[in-house]
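Title: Prediction job returns without error message
Component: structure pipeline
Severity: low
Priority: P3
Assignee: unassigned

Description:
Job completed but the reporter wants confirmation the result is attached to the right record. Sequence as submitted:
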Amino acid sequence: MMSGTMEPLPAATVTAAAGAVRALLRLDEGNEAALVERVAGVALGLAESFCGQVLIARVVEEPVTASVAWQALSATPVGAILSEGEGAIDRDGRGWVRTGAAITVRYRAGLAADWTGLPPEIAHGVAIMGAHLFDNREAAAVPPAAVAALWRPWRRMRLDTPRRS
């Protein structure tokens, strides 16, 4: 669970995802455009929640307490720590900081720079999920099992607090 704030998904990414949903549904460009855009954004959010990582690179601001011990940043994978102070990124993409004063750490996290950089399984799962949400907007239908199967290899689960020596 993230304790800071994150930039919203870029509009271009949501538009590209909406295009994939539209193609899967075989809808014309202007047909129900606002709804398709909305379900594509929701599907992207669901993918991030399921996978437990930031999919499209964005800046995150997270408060950390003063500590001489390394503290793990909550969003992964971290690409760069933008704040001053001592920071490190491990091979799993986990960001670590330690500081003598309570600060807000700014860092960039994300698996891909944009929609085209996403792994095909995640992108296709977003399109399927968006199409499912579009088709079942009036009913509480169970999401397709294919979506979980596509996203599961990219899922990061945290069972304990990360530690670094």
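Comment from assignee: result matches the submitted record. Residues 5-154 form one domain.
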